[in-house]
Amino acid sequence: MEKKLFICLILLIFYQLSFAYKISVKDFPNDDGSAQIITWTSTPESSAFVKVSRIEEDGSELFLNSVPVTKKKIVDKEGLISGQSYRYKVEFLTADSLLIEESWGEGIPVAQWFNTEKTALLILMLILSAAILYYIFSAKRGKDLYIRKISGLEAIDEAVGRATELGRPILFVPGTMDLDDMQTIAGLTILGKVAQKAAEYETEILVPVSRSMVLSTAKEIVKESFMKAGKPDSYKSDSVFYLTDDQFGFVAGVDGIIMRQKPAANFYLGTFYAESLILAETGFANGSIQTSGTAMPSQLPFFIAACDYTLIGEELFAASAYLSKEPNQLGSLKGQDFGKALFVVILIIGVILEISGVHFLKDFLTVH
After folding, report:
1. How confident is the model at residue 71 (pLDDT cuts 50, 70, 90)?
2. Where are the alpha helices (DSSP H) in 169-308?
3. Which pLDDT score is estimated for 7?
4. Given 107, 129, 157, which residue is the final one in a domain?
5. Residues 95 and 49: beta-carbon distance below 8 Å
6. Which of 41, 77, 115, 184 is the most buried (most CB within 10 A)?
7. 233 with 276, same domain?
């Protein structure tokens, strides 16, 4: 008798275990702890559909979904909180929606601190960071880092020298946007170099701006440049002045300055929109040496057509490192160039592998 009871107990435990294994609740990988995956590995023979519900704290059931048994899983994203336990009921139904069996499962969603699907991006970031640090330390040790010549920046001395010979001023326009625009900051960086050359040659410089924050910043840059050149007494506070925030009102004001003051050298460096061709054409008609630079693709053709020198896209942002030769900036510039070269090599290898039917690199770099 005891032997039969023992066998029955074993069979009951085995049944319960097999019953429990029909459903499992797992945390959704690589998320913020707001989802769980409910899966079922075995189902009753006559089951056709699976209905999944979540048991709420008050005992009520929140219906999640009803799917064919062949789908094997569903994902619960209905307002889950990381670290909180949730209980689920899975009902196995016939094709006529008759209940065959039901099973229960419980799980806790957890937020992951790192998305493993972005491992490739982490590796590339580490390589790029290592390259930047390597070139920065190389520059600090005195290694000569080659940087391609940028004609527009090389011609600054020529433009300022011509203005000095003709006894006419220099016009510098740092774009039409505010200080929250990176192109404006890049333009102001070059303004420091141009203003210092103007101070050394004792040439007047005119800097019209369209934003109040740019006005105060440009004043300080020009003033500091005159001090660096050893000519603080030559600085005129009204050389940097505000015109208007209005786009075409500002252009009209600058064009008026060009026609009246007849500057020998014009610099347009920053963010420009429809005003680019108006400014450049007026300066061209005046016979000025013109240097322009912007990262606005739609405006580059106008600058290229009407200006003597044009900084295209990243050349504008590289100007600070190019002019200052400061090790940190030079190293950063070279490291970024290394990263671009690396990405081009990876792209070429990836194309070759895809053509050959090998998808390893594409799968590795893909973020799902």
Report:
1. confident
2. 182-200, 212-228, 247-261, 275-286, 300-306
3. 56
4. 107
5. yes
6. 184
7. yes
Q: How many domains does the chain have?
A: 3
Confidence of residue 20 (pLDDT cuts 50, 70, 90): very low
Who's near 329: CB < 8 A, 6+ residues apart? 320, 321
Residue 327 included in any domain: no
Do 180 and 277 lie in one domain? The reply is yes
Residue entry with tokens 């097999």 = 18
- How is residue 184 annotated by DSSP? H
**Distance between CA atoms of 321 and 140, rounded to whole angstroms?**
14
Helix 275-286, helix 247-261: angle, nearest 10: 0
**DSSP letter string over 15-51?**
HHHHHHTT-EEEEPTTSBS--EEEE-S---TT--EEE
**Cα torsion at 342, 347, 352, 355 (round to 10°)?**
170
Kind of pairing between the strands at 170-173 and 205-209: parallel
Residue 324 is assigned to a structural domain of this protein = no
Bridge partner residues of 170 (DSSP): 205, 265
The predicted structure's pLDDT at residue 18: 47
Could you tell me the CATH number of the domain that includes residue 93?
2.60.40.10
pLDDT of 275-301, one tens digit each? 999 999 999 999 999 999 999 999 999
- My answer on whether 100 and 137 are in the same domain is no
Residues 6+ positions from 189 with CB-CB distance below 8 Å: 319, 320, 323
Q: Please give the residue range of the domain that contains residue 67.
A: 2-107
- Whether the pLDDT of residue 11 is over 70: the answer is no
> Is residue 247, in this structure, part of any structural domain at all?
yes
Give tens-digit pLDDT for 195-243.
999 999 999 999 999 999 999 999 999 999 999 999 988 899 899 999 9
pLDDT tens digit sequence for 98-126: 888 888 888 889 888 888 888 888 888 99
322 within a domain of the structure (yes/no)? no
How many residues are there in the chain?
A: 368
User: How many CB atoms within 10 Å of residue 306?
Assistant: 21
